[in-house]
């Protein structure tokens, strides 16, 4: 199972969480949000690597997650983590889903984002 599918599957196990596709222009983008308050805690998408500062126009799947700014500061120093694409860069981070980060770590960050936004 690819990382994207594992992340979606895990999200479905979270209480009060739903996955939807709100963008007609981007039908593959998936938003993770709380049913009760509508707040987002994740955005799955695919963007060109050069939009993340990498030297390629190939696309890469990634997820934007809301995290504590101090944690974001630390994570951005590691491989596979980038300033949030299309989100507030102080409170969100982009994590690429290319296998450079263990799926378990991505799930842990997703859960942290879920709790921060509930």
Automatic annotation (TrEMBL):
Q: List, alphabetically, the InterPro entries matched.
A: YjbR, YjbR-like_sf, YjbR/MT2646/Rv2570-like
In Swiss-Prot or TrEMBL terms, this protein is called MmcQ protein
